[in-house]
Recover the amino acids of this structure.
């Protein structure tokens, strides 16, 4: 059985964390959120880790991050930059904003030839989520267009310090993704989970699945992404801020009949540092998981 690959989107880390030397240690020995993701992936049965980063912090990344995993699992690095676009296309020379999450995925084409999962570097996804997506990916080798995403129950993705934005999923009776709608201002109010749109409040069921950008694909997704990116550049190449999102490509493939996307349920609780006030709670939650025996005191 082919082991799936974990593809970690980390191209924003240099700017987001003010340089790799300041990657935030949240575990008892300075572990980062990404360290816990790699640990969970290895015990779920992933066989390789690929990181997409910016070329300008490759040396720091290899020294500070990869050195921890080098003797545990094969690791490879690819690079996202604005100028990595198909031949014959141009973009606004004043643009500085990256092309977005699906452009980052495209950077892994030469390194990934097996089913793979995609995650953000700075989200804590939880042990169960890695297991359910690994199990799915292990069963789809040799097929095409049978994608998946982990659907977190919205109640497990909230912040106690303010509202959050989430991709709320519409799922059919067989558990396949039909729609994703970005909902802003989701929070708990009076014992209910509410999102606000056009100054109107709407209730969400506590178990409503939402996307936290944890996807599973087979390798032909790279080719489909290339086609979609060409269309994107034709329409938006001169814009300063428009981004090429995973959700856009998946939605188009579903509605054109080229792919399905199974929504995998998990009881994992997502957490991350959405607000600066979240940090102490994240540290506490990791400490609780260590106390419960979910993680060892020292990961690597």
């Amino acid at each position: 059985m082919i082991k799936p690959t974990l593809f970690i989107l980390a191209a924003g880390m240099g700017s987001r964390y003010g340089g790799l030397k300041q990657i935030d240690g949240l575990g008892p020995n300075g572990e980062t959120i990404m360290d816990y993701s790699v640990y969970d992936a290895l015990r779920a049965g992933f066989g390789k880790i690929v990181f997409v980063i910016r070329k300008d912090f490759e040396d720091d990344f290899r020294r500070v991050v990869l050195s921890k995993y080098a003797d545990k699992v094969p690791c490879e690095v690819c690079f996202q930059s604005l100028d990595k676009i198909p031949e014959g296309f141009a973009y606004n020379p004043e643009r500085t904003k990256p092309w977005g999450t699906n452009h980052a995925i495209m950077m892994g084409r030469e390194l990934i030839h097996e089913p793979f999962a995609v995650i953000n570097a700075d989200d804590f996804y939880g042990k169960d989520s890695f297991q359910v997506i690994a199990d799915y990916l292990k069963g789809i080798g040799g097929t095409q267009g049978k994608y998946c995403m982990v659907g977190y129950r919205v109640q497990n993705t909230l912040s106690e310090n303010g509202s959050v934005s989430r991709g709320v999923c519409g799922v059919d009776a067989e558990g396949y993704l039909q729609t994703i709608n970005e909902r802003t201002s989701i929070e708990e109010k009076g014992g209910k989970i509410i999102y606000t749109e056009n100054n109107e409040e709407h209730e969400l069921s506590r178990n409503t699945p939402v996307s936290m950008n944890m996807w599973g694909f087979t390798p032909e997704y790279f080719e489909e992404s290339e086609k979609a990116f060409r269309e994107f550049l034709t329409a938006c190449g001169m814009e300063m801020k428009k981004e090429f999102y995973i959700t856009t490509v998946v939605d188009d493939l579903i509605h054109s009949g080229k792919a399905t996307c199974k929504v995998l349920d998990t009881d994992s609780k997502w957490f991350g540092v959405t607000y600066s006030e979240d940090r102490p709670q994240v540290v506490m939650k990791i400490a609780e998981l260590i106390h419960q025996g979910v993680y060892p005191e020292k990961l690597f």
Observations:
- The chain has one domain: 5-153+210-291.
- The chain has a mean pLDDT of 92.
- The longest helix spans residues 221-236.
